[in-house]
Amino acid sequence: MSILNKIKKAKLVGRGGACFSTAIKWGMVKDVPGKRKFVVCNASEGEPGVKKDGYILENYPGRVIGGIKLAIDFLGAEKAYFYINHDYHKKYGNKLENAIGQLPIEFFIKPVGSGYIGGEESSLLNAIEGCRVEPRLRPPFPTTAGLFGCPTLINNVETFYNVSLVNDGEYKNKRFYTIGGESFKPGVYEFSDDETIEKILKMTKNYPDFPFFVQVGGDASGEVLNSKQLKNPASGAGLITVHNISKHQPKKLIKYWLEFFQKESCGQCTPCREGIYRLNEIINSEKIDWQLFFDVLNNLSETALCGLGMALPLPIKSYMKNVFTKLSDEKIKVENFDRKTICECFK
Ligand code: SF4
């Protein structure tokens, strides 16, 4: 059976966060005519809190390189780039080099200071080409016009690791989860890919004995859920961050998201560059205009050019809807946080 059919049969999805079908992506790059094709392994792991790619590189470098080799052979690709953050290259570079041997796989170290956006798939193509590190307008997608205008397959570390398992008949529908925040036993764990958040917390002895909520998928862009909403699998990059309700400070948390996204915005498009600046301005004002705040936030998800700007509304709105509006009044002692207006927005 061809590797594509094996991947199809395994129903593999990408593990960078978007969960796009791996077979469809591989098939798209294969079907585009072109003499030159490239493969890129994205090992930038820039989503705060997520550590699973580092864990895989440390423990299974041969598997990851094996998956990349399968992609090169399947596509007849000229070469592969191993796009890796500086820290991981320092820690795991030697192991990976040993696994690479004579294969046409070249390291490309993520530019220092390129931050969160340096891991976005079209930004990393710009980085490799020596251009300004910012997302490209799509379409065309990298599958048809990626690196140097050629069809390019970009997959995450865990995806290549899984491809290697699939090829050897050892893939068991599992994925890696990072557990962090105020958990008892933070770390990286492996469970079935449809395991519920609640079960994962229980099986790893991380289920809190205090009132809590979680952020799932990533500390920046992940969805916030209360403790009654844990019956679904963990989405995105598989992070589960535990927050203690009594200790958390609503305004501090919202400011963390806003400041993170403002700092990481590449500044290319107006809704993100100006919008997040204005959101920060509103939240720091003496009297917060919540209607304006949510208008700007909603506008961002509809008009931002790339996933970074589109991602900010999810943590803030899900936190407001699933946690803040359900807190008892005595727990909400936040100056300027008008409970009535916020609840109105989320009823
Ligand atoms: S949404 Fe933000 S990060 Fe993305 S292109 Fe626009 S300014 Fe850059």
Overview of this protein structure:
With 347 residues, the chain is an alpha/beta fold. The protein folds into 3 domains: 3-167, 3-Layer(aba) Sandwich (Rossmann fold), CATH 3.40.50; 174-244, Ubiquitin-like (UB roll); 250-345, de novo design (two linked rop proteins), CATH 1.20.1440. Helices cover 43% and strands 15% of the residues. The chain has helices at 3-10, 22-31, 52-59, 61-75, 86-100, 121-129, 157-167, 197-203, 250-264, 270-283, 290-303, 307-311, 313-322, 339-345; strands at 38-43, 79-84, 105-109, 152-156, 174-181, 187-192, 212-216, 223-226, 239-244. It has a 5-stranded mixed β-sheet with strand order 6-5-9-7-8. A 4-stranded parallel β-sheet has the order 3-2-1-4, sandwiched between helices. β2 (79-84), α5 and β3 form a beta-alpha-beta unit. α4 (61-75) packs across α5, α4 (61-75) packs across α7 (157-167) and α9 runs antiparallel to α10 (270-283). The structure holds iron/sulfur cluster. Iron/sulfur cluster (SF4) is lined by residues 117, 134-135, 265-269, 272-273, 304-306, 308-309. Iron/sulfur cluster (SF4) binds next to α10 and α12.
